[in-house]
Amino acid sequence: MANVLNNEEMQALRNYVQGPSSQNRASSTVLLHVSHSNLKMKFFELRLDMHMTIEQLKVKLSFHVGTNASAQVLQLKDDSGRVIAPFMEDHHKLGYYSPHDGFYIHIIDMDPNSASANGWLEDTDLVDKYKMSDDDYNKRENTYRKFKEAKLKEDPTWTLQKEMAKKKGQPLPQQKEKQADPDFLAAEAASCTVGSRASVEPGDRRCEIMFVGRDVAGLPLGWWVGVRYDEPLGKSDGTAGGQRYFQCSPGYGGFVRPDKVKVGDYPPIDDGLSDGLSEGDEI
């Protein structure tokens, strides 16, 4: 079951109860874990004053766990989980039980109608969630959907990334042009032949050319070169868009634009790994 608090919230709570520095705390304080009979999550290192009474401690804990002070039975456990005090009495002070840093205060919730029972404070799946229909959503004003529609009418290339960059005064993200020419880079592809050794930029990635062609499934129009790298520097096994164009081991294949391929006497090398790839240049 999911916790009510995520990691960041738990850390914030920890920082709050610890104060500015646990190293500079008063000698009369102790850092104790807290567990609860109905809850899986634990509050780590609550800073507690040894001079507070158990009754005062229960009131403090009620704000953390949702169990009324009158319904709490407190036990003290050592850092191994062994019960030191099975019943901490209200009139005693916390220091009476000689707790040490790292010990546990375990809360037994005696309220059968407690809000923490059966996971109601932790499992959000138990809470009925309202789901709005598309029709109801479309009737609402000032929604993101209507905002997006209005922006797209003004600028068909609008994106949320562009909008955020504009508001922050940052350069607009570059939009890649859709390739409409089926013979794009045909001249460069003419110098690439199947079986030739080559180097792919960036990174001088040595390879063997396995395929030269256009209309590669899932890729923009134009010419592509299928390569089998000497090292696992690729993103493919010789397939693209569910179709196979050549055979190679997974991670050794790639489809790159011809202008990224240099044909020549390129013996295999063991270095030159690079991940300076531009999205859209290859798969």
TrEMBL record:
Subcellular compartments: Cytoplasm
Keyword Repressor: no
Region Disordered, residue ranges: 263-283
A Pfam family per the record: Ubiquitin_2
SMART domains linked: CAP_GLY
Coiled coil: none
Keyword annotations from UniProtKB, A to Z: Chaperone, Cytoplasm
Domain CAP-Gly: 222-257
UniProt xrefs under InterPro entries: CAP-Gly_dom_sf (IPR036859), CAP-Gly_domain (IPR000938), TBCB_Ubl (IPR045172), Ubiquitin-like_dom (IPR000626), Ubiquitin-like_domsf (IPR029071)
Gene3D superfamilies listed in its UniProt record: CAP Gly-rich-like domain (2.30.30.190), Phosphatidylinositol 3-kinase Catalytic Subunit, Chain A, domain 1 (3.10.20.90)
Assigned protein family: Belongs to the TBCB family.
Protein name per the record: CAP Gly-rich domain-containing protein
Organism: Dunaliella salina
